[in-house]
Structure formats: structure tokens, C-alpha cells
Amino acid sequence: QVQLVESGGELVQPGGSLRLSCTVSGIIFSIYVMDWYRQAPGKQRELVASITGRGKITYADSVKGRFTVSRDNAKNTVYLQMNSLKPEDTAVYYCNPGRSSYWGQGTQVTVSS
Description:
Layout: E1 3-7, E2 11-12, E3 18-25, E4 34-39, E5 46-51, E6 57-59, E7 67-72, E8 77-82, E9 91-97, E10 107-111
Parallel strand pairs: 2-10
Antiparallel strand pairs: 1-3, 3-8, 4-5, 4-9, 5-6, 7-8, 9-10
């Protein structure tokens, strides 16, 4: 059974930072591309960042230079370091293995003063 547990989201002021984590069980984590998505109210889910098992990384233009994705294959965990946060980053953030149908509950990030 595949399980994904996202954590680290909270209310933060504009310009602040957060580190999200996603721990995965039930798959051979190291061979999967891991993606971070986000979904804001009334909007479609958006791909934010991807990291392959070997560490190749891509970002959406909207987060380049501000977000950093990383992974620890020994811990079956993928991270998303988010700096210089903006109100438009407010969303529920999800991780996803291999563009699959496996989803966790997400973690809410709210950027507001």
C-alpha cells in the first residue's frame, strides 16, 4: 500500500521561508521521479518542481530562484525549501511519485501578512 505524508505547511508572512517534507512508503522510492504540485482555491493543480532518482531537477518558472527541491533516498523523503514566499504561493502542496495516481492529504501553505 502506497502512502504519502506531506508536512511543514503553515501560515507565513510574505518574504518568509518554509520547508516542506513528504515521506513515502510502499514503493521503491529511489527509482521514482518525485514531483511537488500545488493547488490554490479555484485553480488547477500546478506542477512546481521535479527531481529524478539521480537528482535531475526542474522547476516551474514561477518558483525558479526561490524554491529548492531535494531528496533523501535513505529516508524515502523529498523536500521543498521555499524562500521569498509570496501571497500567490498560497496553496495546498502535494508530492507525487512518478506522475502516478498516488496522492497524500497535502499540506496547507498560507502566505499572508
